[in-house]
Amino acid sequence: MILAAGRGERLRPLTDRTPKPLIEVGGKPLIAHHLERLAGAGFDQVVVNLAWLGEQIEQALGDGSSFGVDIAYSREPAGALETAGGIIHALPLLGNQPFLMISADVFCDYPLDRLRSRPLQGLGHLVLVENPAHHEQGDFALDAQSRLVNGAPAFTFSGLALLHPALFHGLAPGRLALRPVFEQAMENESLTGELYQGIWSDVGTADRLAAIRRQIAT
């Protein structure tokens, strides 16, 4: 599932007319990088959630055949449902097996086939990265068994994870952030993680967008 429903407030006015997933990096939209890499890793069914300017995303991607995948769209009400709310809304399209979740507004070269072939222990496996300058406090730490815990040193959640639908069972539809869902699962020792040290950028501001464009160009 590619999370593509966000408003992109910090990139305004650029995102007033262009949804953030269609902003170009390296000569193609951010979401196109994800779709090409997903297809290359063996994924053939993709769910994309839509809200802000979602019709532009659907028009650009179509049914996904040009990328080698089959896309199903999960359309959300105006204002979107936040991350966990969007996943809950899309559960009927996701089925009963673990699924890959990736945020459309990150650029990352993590080898996605690694998650496709990974046996899931518990309810989720998160990819963490070294803390960027804009998020120095990080999100989660890892214990000796690679389980997610609160503590130090903490790393930043990359926006990439392998999740089981059961992680969201019993949660009511509506607006809901992902962090509280993760916190509850962590209490039950149900989440694992890993630290990835390759290319990663949260393309959330004009400065970070310019930086990743320079990095890709060189």
Characterization of this structure:
By secondary structure, the chain is α/β, with parallel strands linked by helices. It has one domain (2-217): Spore Coat Polysaccharide Biosynthesis Protein SpsA, Chain A, CATH 3.90.550.10. The chain is built from seven helices and 13 strands. Strands 5-4-1-6-11-8-12 form a seven-stranded mixed sheet. Strands 2-3 form a two-stranded antiparallel sheet. Strands 7-13 form a two-stranded antiparallel ribbon. A hairpin with a 5-residue loop joins strand 9 (141-142) and strand 10. The radius of gyration is 16 Å and the shape is globular. The protein starts with a strand and ends with a helix. 42% of the residues are buried.
In a few lines, what is going on in this structure?
This protein is α/β, with parallel strands linked by helices and 218 residues long. The chain has a single domain (2-217), classed as Spore Coat Polysaccharide Biosynthesis Protein SpsA, Chain A, CATH 3.90.550.10. It has helices at 14-17, 30-40, 54-61, 82-94, 113-116, 179-187, 206-217, and strands spanning 2-3, 24-25, 28-29, 45-50, 70-75, 99-103, 106-108, 124-129, 141-142, 148-149, 156-163, 191-196, 200-202.
Topology:
Elements: E1 2-3, H1 14-17, E2 24-25, E3 28-29, H2 30-40, E4 45-50, H3 54-61, E5 70-75, H4 82-94, E6 99-103, E7 106-108, H5 113-116, E8 124-129, E9 141-142, E10 148-149, E11 156-163, H6 179-187, E12 191-196, E13 200-202, H7 206-217
Parallel strand pairs: 1-4, 1-6, 4-5, 8-12
Antiparallel strand pairs: 2-3, 6-11, 7-13, 8-11, 9-10
